[in-house]
Amino acid sequence: MTRHDAERKQKIIEMIAASIRARGFPPSVREIAKGVGLSSTSAVHHHLQILEKEGLLERGAAEARAIRLTPLAAIQYGGSSEDLVPQSTPSMSYTLAVIGEIAAGGPIDAYQDASETIAVPDFMAAAGDAYVLRVRGDSMIDAHIEDGDFVVIRRQPTARDGDIVVAQVEENGVTLKRFFKEKDRVRLQPANDNYPPMYYPEVRIQGKLIGVIRRLD
Fold it and tell me: Does 154 lie in the same domain as 67?
């Protein structure tokens, strides 16, 4: 191991420790990459695997973000091992994958990443097959959904009038809007008077909104 690798390993340990002590849960893979100067999330996973093999951290199989620093890491870090274990709380005890972005405006191309996770209230994670999307645009601001927010979506192929849904409206275009079934078409209604309704003969419902998360930092 080079000196540079050893320094990066130490930075990762210190970043995980600082996040757990400050927030009660470890950083996401993307946060680690940005914090220690790695260019890709795959490089972070590589370093985490090495730390795990060296006995400096443990990763839970059930949750992508369930990272614990071991007592050996605590000694190396110079802190208390009790401070470096994620604190489980009733309101923020689950993580869900952030799989991409969703348009609150015109449709954008769908993509899946799933390399980032976010802590969510337990009732959201318990709602079934759920995932998270990052919002791009301001067409849903009157529904208290702003640009940069994270929306928690439950996978389902149907919706009732008035539900806020992830709708696929083009071959690979998705948007976040209120759903209304009209006589011979579907109306996707923005929650912003600056945007007109969108009309389609049909749309494919990919999921229903069950929560909104906003990071204030």
Answer: no
177 is catalytic: yes
Same domain for 98 and 204: yes
Residue range 93-141, pLDDT digits in tens? 567 777 778 876 555 444 455 557 777 766 666 556 788 888 988 999 9
Task: Specify the DSSP element, H or E, that contains 108.
Answer: strand 108-109
Which of 59, 84, 109 terminates a domain? The answer is 84
* CA 2/CA 10 separation, integer angstroms: 13
CATH at residue 62? 1.10.10.10
Catalytic residue among 139, 181, 183, 208: 139
Exposure b/e, 40-66, CB count within 10 A at least 16 = b: ebebbbebbeebeeeebbebeeebbbb
- Model pTM score: 0.55
- Per the structure, the complete domain to which residue 140 belongs is given by 94-213
Q: Active site residue: 9, 28, 115, 177, which one?
A: 177
Our answer to whether residue 34 is catalytic in this structure is: no
Pairing of strands 94-103, 130-136: parallel
Give the chain's domain count: 2
**Residue 51 contacts residue 57 (beta carbons within 8 Å):** yes
Structure tokens at 122: 């337990």
